[in-house]
Amino acid sequence: MDVRQLEAMLAKGRDSPLLRFSLGKCYLDLADYPQAVTHLAECIEQDPGYSAAWKLLGKAHQEAGDLDAAQLA
Known about the structure:
5 helices, 0% strand, globular
């Protein structure tokens, strides 16, 4: 799926940790780090045990230049 399809699912109210993770990964792949951080942080808010989301959140923060936040993630 591409980011437009995932955003459409979110707009229809289908919010879930998996959807947020998928959006975060898509935005990370597109180098849109602020959007990646937003969606990955929401994923973790919904499911604090989602270890893959923590890993990508750290990477998104690192790519955005926020090394302190990356280290915390």
